[in-house]
Amino acid sequence: MKNFFSVDITNSEWKLVMDGLEQMPLRNENGELRYVVRFAPGAKFPHHTHKETEELFVLDGTLITNDVAYGAGSYLCYGPNTEHEPWSEKGCLVLVMERNAG
Fold this sequence. Notes:
mainly beta
């Protein structure tokens, strides 16, 4: 890991993932991925199954997954073989931490 680096998500270029979803890469080293996802109002990430653990931390707004709404400050941890289809009615910002399953 680098000794130090920083990313200012308010002054960096977001990558379009799909309609309504943008991603800001933070870290990708030794198979560990860290990025911020910005959901536009009504945006939905497709239903998927995790090969590895995925951790989410809602930074702003409300994320809805498996029919439960999680507001800012919520931490979610999905273990291997768990499924979900996250979306946001009014938009949200989520920190995602996961291992790259290859």
